[in-house]
Amino acid sequence: MKNNIDKETGFSMPSASNFDVMKLFKLKNETALITGAANGIGRVAAISLGKAGAKIAITDIDFEAAKNLETELLSAGIEAKAWHMDAKDEKNIIAVFSKVDKSLGNTSILINNAGTAYRSPAEDMSTEDFEQIIKLNLTGSFICARTAAKRMLQNKKGSIINVASIMGVTGGGPAPNSPYHASKGAIVNLTRSLANEWGPRGIRVNAIGPTYTKTRLVKNLSEDPNKLNFIIERTPLGRLAEVSEMAGGILFLASDASSMVTGHTLMIDGGWSSN
What we know:
Elements: E1 4-5, E2 12-13, E3 31-35, H1 40-51, E4 55-60, H2 63-75, E5 80-84, H3 90-104, E6 109-112, H4 127-155, E7 158-163, H5 178-198, E8 203-210, H6 219-222, H7 225-233, H8 247-254, E9 265-268
Parallel strand pairs: 3-4, 3-6, 4-5, 6-7, 7-8, 8-9
Antiparallel strand pairs: 1-2
């Protein structure tokens, strides 16, 4: 891509005649591993990155659902393969990354999406239940990021996208959910920390912060009028997010379109965090 040189500064400037901005979003020759890929935000990430040209490693604890998505992607002309992954199991995580290396090539894009919630008043919650949410949402994301980074550091390039939440930057939601809030707040700061540590070596680490999105995780909330009103009243756009509305942010952060962006949590929250 030929650029113009600004006469006053000597800096390179894009040329209107040949600057292909859409090319920045292409992911040809990239391998994207997505955790919790079979449904919800993970599913739309797999489809979106695959449509942009990436090879897709579908990982999920629900292997049957992951295989179904593999079939769907293959039928759409997207190179993809499914693996069973328990994002709480370090040995399983490491083994899956190695299998992806051999089948699709080293992971160059990681979407840390696997996670869950446990809605209960804090005073009634067991320590074990709290720790299980932290283990999946936070520790599992760290293990996946560390495992991916070992591959990315070899090429001095990579993009890691953690799925945080509006609840990672605010303190209250429509139902008590303290371990989820704690884990997602930690994801926001883990993103910043890893961005600072790995940025000098070519790895970008960012996050998305979705609002309540039409996925299985929020189905019960969306069916409760009081809880639904709680969400809508705090959202300037006045509605839940469609899962497809996560696609643009994920593709942006995964691609060279965001080549100067790291350590950032992109809020896809209908304006909630602006309150």
